[in-house]
């Protein structure tokens, strides 16, 4: 016995003296365990007892021991069956962010069950009896002060990888020597089913391996293995011979038998594969076989990457399990429970990009467990007659699962995955009944014959095929960069795709089409959960997918904002779960910070998850600040109300040149599109603005007045007449009805713009320039505009002329507040003065040098704008779209310099989160205003005594 085993042996001896009381002895047990592995105690190691775990919509729970980022221990009383507490441990693990523990241990004072949920679910990676700990301590190598790699005895992922790689080696050899690829794939899958079946005793134990051994001795695989596969597909049992006890497996993968004569090397490879323990192979990650048996070009073209089961549960739990679990828990009457059971057995699940069937496998297993939970509740609450009415047959079937897959081999693999799921689910259900100690006489279907799923899992392009009706849609659609789709799929396919889905932006990621189609296919109340690249929450992809879902009755119920992908693809993903309808209550957003799979996690509870899947701090409680409201520094631009007020540049120039128009009433008119889409930014039309003139004064401008009289006046008369008629009808029904005078007011001053904003124009006239941004925007783009230009109502206008104020507004600090506080229009951010500007706290005590630094950085950014736009012939929108691309970007560098200067002006430390800082500052300033203390608002701070050095002359003018 090693020296290290001595303290472990002492721990084992001590554990024998305990009665196994969960409440009274768990803490001292954990402390002694830490001491056994070289620590002074749990506290000295940095672990916490009774750690609070908060779940969405639930009361606070307590984890027995948490040692971040390595370990969570849940103690149960002696004799307790640990499998019963798997779900609790898994959900604790999900909620324990950031720094989610790597390992989870369940213990009942006699046995440890060790889980690595990133590796495998349901089955622990090891089970260690406490009595065996001295010679099994390597399974706890993670517990030593200096962590070592643990050695587990039940790592099913490793078994699955090894088995899949060995079968793939056979396949690669067959294809390499000229066998037909499709036949080689089918043969490989038939071998997989045979090896699994002999270990699961669906075939006579060891039969397939014995046949291979005989072939190694000189027999023919064409005869023996081919004969076995033919018998597995025969409804007529063999009356004698080697296949006498081989049962009927049904069609599907065995529907076509093409025997292959293997080489001696291939027989050795297959024998090596059959030596693996196939009862430990995990069907949910059979995607390993799927991937390793296909060439890289094809794999990348169809985006077929497998997902870890922990990630699959991030879809299956919120989309299927929790909604059903809540309904089961709420049902008390026999009638309700029977109705739920009948509904569950009719519940259809679709994966429209099913790949190897991993999502469907997990969903099927969970449906089986839900069925058992329902039946167990009936048997526990009601008498014999009620139990008999419900019956004892498990009737949830793989026929309730549907899949669409573009690759033919993927279709066959998915069928095999679900075929195996049937037998494994039976074993799982029996184990669950035993664990729960239920007197539940459930009758399970025979594992054989396997279900024929040819009508359930189909080979088609899901974006053009009909979808089967389903109450839940789940999966991991293929993804491909919008910039590479043309190269990968070809122009003909893309043209067809755009024609079929004209409302999805052309630059959206490929997976976005599945999000949109899934929502359209869902019935009211249906749930969906899909994995996509994290571009689904950004720009064009968000517009085509999640924006559409939310705008058309969808409620996002749980989401992963971003995480490092668990498969082989080097990509960050987002996960969105939603219901087609309303769902009250708190929602969870998870996010992973960093670029490593081990990077820490955060979880946020919010009332609403927006289409950007944002984890930003909730700043809805921020207060409007009087200093901002009274500054008169933020306005919406002018609303013309009628196209008759607008002239083209050519029309206006001709009128001015001929003396038919006066520059005092005719102004260049800048829109958001003019600002963002033209190079250089410039007004493309003029506006007639007679304000503040009365009708008589306006009529002196004969040409322009006549234009409005012939175009605007008739329209406003018609609108006012309709309004009057509606008012008369309303008054007849209710004399006290509040009548609308909107159009009548416009008619009373028909020669004026609908909303001329006289305060705004008066301020502009007194300034050399002002700041403007598009009111509805995807990106923070602010520009100075000449006072000679009238802003349209598509612009948000800031009557500030200095470079410092521009720097504050253009900064990422202001943009973060903008996004968190603004309203939306079709998923875009809409600047609103009352929610965004009025509550935005400006720096309170910048030094003169800090103010100069902000001004200098803002000027440099604008200079870069002009240079880059001129060199590339880009508009501002095109320039800022480059920020969506990876790699070094000088625009980002210039923006970062500005943000650094602005953070310094605020006094933000490097660790300060922007929204948290601003929210706290807002609360502080609101408190000061309430107590009549001075607060600094928009514009140059008091430390600046001379404004002139801060006011340069660059701005948008009229070309």
Automatic annotation (TrEMBL):
Keywords: Methyltransferase, Plasmid, Transferase. It comes from the Bacteria. InterPro entries: DNA_methylase_N6_adenine_CS, MmeI_hel, MmeI_Mtase, MmeI_N, MmeI_TRD, N4_N6_ade-DNA_methylase, SAM-dependent_MTases_sf. Residues 783-844 form the MmeI-like target recognition domain. Its EC number is 2.1.1.72. The keyword Methyltransferase applies. Gene3D superfamilies: Vaccinia Virus protein VP39 (3.40.50.150). GO terms for molecular function: nucleic acid binding; site-specific DNA-methyltransferase (adenine-specific) activity. PROSITE patterns: N6_MTASE. SUPFAM superfamilies: S-adenosyl-L-methionine-dependent methyltransferases (SSF53335). One of its GO terms (biological process) is methylation. This is site-specific DNA-methyltransferase (adenine-specific). It comes from Paludisphaera borealis.
């Amino acid at each position: 016995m090693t020296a290290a085993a001595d303290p472990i042996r002492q721990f084992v001896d001590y554990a024998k003296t305990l009665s196994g009381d969960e409440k009274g002895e768990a803490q001292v047990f954990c402390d002694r365990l830490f001491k056994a592995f070289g620590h002074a105690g749990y506290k000295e190691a940095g672990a916490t007892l009774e750690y609070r775990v908060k779940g969405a919509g639930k009361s606070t729970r307590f984890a027995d021991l948490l040692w971040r980022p390595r370990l969570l221990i849940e103690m149960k009383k002696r004799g307790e069956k640990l499998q019963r507490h798997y779900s609790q441990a898994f959900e604790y693990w999900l909620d324990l962010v950031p720094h989610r523990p790597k390992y989870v241990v369940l213990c009942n004072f006699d046995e440890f069950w060790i889980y690595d949920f990133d590796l495998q679910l349901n089955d622990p990676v090891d089970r260690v009896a406490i009595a065996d700990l001295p010679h099994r301590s390597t399974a706890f190598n993670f517990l030593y002060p200096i962590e070592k790699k643990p050695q587990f005895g039940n790592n099913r992922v490793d078994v699955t990888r090894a088995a899949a790689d060995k079968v793939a080696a056979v396949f690669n050899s067959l294809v390499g020597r000229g066998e037909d690829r499709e036949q080689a794939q089918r043969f490989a899958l038939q071998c997989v089913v045979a090896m699994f079946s002999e270990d699961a005793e669906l075939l006579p134990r060891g039969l397939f391996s014995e046949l291979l051994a005989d072939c190694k001795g000189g027999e023919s695989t064409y005869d023996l293995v081919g004969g076995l596969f033919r018998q597995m597909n025969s409804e007529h049992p063999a009356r004698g011979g080697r296949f006498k006890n081989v049962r009927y497996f049904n069609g599907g993968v065995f529907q076509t038998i093409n025997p292959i004569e293997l080489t001696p090397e291939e027989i050795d490879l297959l024998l090596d594969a059959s030596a693996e323990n196939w009862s430990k192979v995990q069907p949910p990650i059979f995607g390993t076989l799927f991937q390793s048996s296909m060439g890289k070009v094809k794999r990348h073209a169809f985006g077929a990457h497998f997902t870890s089961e922990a990630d699959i549960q991030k879809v299956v739990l919120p989309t299927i399990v929790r909604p059903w679990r809540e309904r089961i828990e709420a049902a008390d009457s026999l009638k309700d429970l029977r109705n739920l059971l009948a509904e569950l057995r009719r519940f259809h699940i679709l994966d429209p990009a099913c790949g190897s069937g991993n999502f469907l496998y997990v969903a099927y297993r969970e449906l089986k467990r839900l069925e058992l939970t329902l039946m167990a509740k009936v048997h526990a609450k009601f008498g014999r007659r009620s139990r008999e009415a419900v019956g004892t047959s498990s009737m949830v079937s793989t026929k309730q699962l549907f899949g669409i897959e573009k690759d033919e081999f993927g279709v066959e693999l998915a069928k095999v995955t679900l075929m195996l799921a049937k037998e494994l689910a039976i074993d799982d259900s029996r184990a669950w009944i035993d664990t729960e100690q239920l007197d539940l006489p459930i009758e399970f279907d025979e594992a054989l014959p396997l279900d024929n799923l040819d009508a359930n899992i189909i080979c088609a392009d899901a974006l053009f095929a009909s979808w089967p009706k389903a109450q839940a849609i789940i999966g991991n659609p293929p993804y491909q960069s919008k910039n590479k789709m043309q190269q990968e799929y070809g122009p003909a396919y893309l043209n067809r795709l755009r024609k079929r889905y004209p409302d999805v932006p052309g630059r959206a990621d490929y997976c976005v089409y599945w999000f949109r189609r899934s929502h359209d296919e869902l019935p009211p109340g249906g749930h969906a959960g899909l994995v996509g690249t994290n571009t689904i929450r950004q720009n064009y992809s968000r517009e085509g997918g999640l924006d559409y879902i939310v705008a058309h009755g969808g409620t996002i119920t749980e989401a992963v904002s971003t995480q490092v992908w668990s498969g082989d693809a080097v990509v960050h993903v987002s996960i969105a779960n939603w219901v087609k309808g309303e769902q009250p209550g708190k929602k969870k957003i998870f996010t992973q910070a960093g670029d490593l799979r081990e990077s820490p996690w955060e979880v946020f509870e919010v009332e609403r998850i927006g289409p950007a899947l944002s984890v930003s701090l909730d700043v809805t409680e921020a207060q409007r600040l009087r200093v901002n409201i009274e500054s008169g520094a933020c306005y919406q631009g002018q609303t013309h109300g009628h196209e008759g007020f607008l002239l083209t540049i050519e029309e206006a120039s001709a009128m001015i040149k001929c003396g038919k128009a006066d520059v005092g009433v005719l102004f260049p008119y800048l829109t958001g599109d003019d600002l963002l889409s033209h190079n250089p930014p410039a007004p493309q039309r003029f506006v007639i603005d007679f304000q503040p003139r009365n009708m008589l004064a306006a009529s002196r401008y004969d040409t322009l007045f006549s234009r409005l009289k012939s175009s605007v006046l008739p329209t406003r008369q018609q609108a006012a007449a309709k309004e009057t008629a509606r008012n008369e009808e309303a008054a007849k029904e209710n004399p006290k009805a509040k009548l609308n005078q909107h159009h009548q007011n416009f008619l009373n001053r028909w020669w004026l713009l609908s909303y001329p904003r006289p305060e705004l124009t008066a301020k502009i006239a007194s300034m050399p320039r002002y700041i403007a941004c598009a009111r509805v925007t995807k990106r923070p783009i602010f520009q100075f505009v000449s006072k000679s230009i009238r802003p349209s109502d598509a612009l948000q206008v800031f009557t500030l002329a200095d470079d410092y104020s521009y720097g504050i507004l253009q900064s990422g600090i202001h943009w973060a507040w903008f996004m968190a506080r603004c309203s939306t229009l079709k998923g875009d951010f809409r600047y609103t003065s009352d929610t965004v500007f009025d509550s935005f706290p400006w720096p309170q005590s910048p030094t003169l040098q800090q103010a100069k630094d902000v001004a200098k950085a803002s000027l440099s950014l604008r200079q870069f704008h002009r240079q880059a736009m001129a060199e590339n012939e880009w508009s501002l929108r095109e320039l800022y779209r480059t920020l969506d691309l990876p790699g070094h970007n000088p625009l980002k560098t210039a923006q970062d310099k500005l943000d650094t200067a602005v953070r310094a002006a605020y006094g933000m430390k490097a660790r300060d989160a922007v929204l948290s800082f601003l929210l706290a500052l807002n609360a502080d300033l609101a408190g000061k205003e309430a107590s009549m203390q001075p607060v600094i608002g928009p514009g140059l701070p008091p430390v600046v005594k001379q404004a002139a050095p801060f006011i340069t002359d660059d701005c948008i003018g009229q070309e």
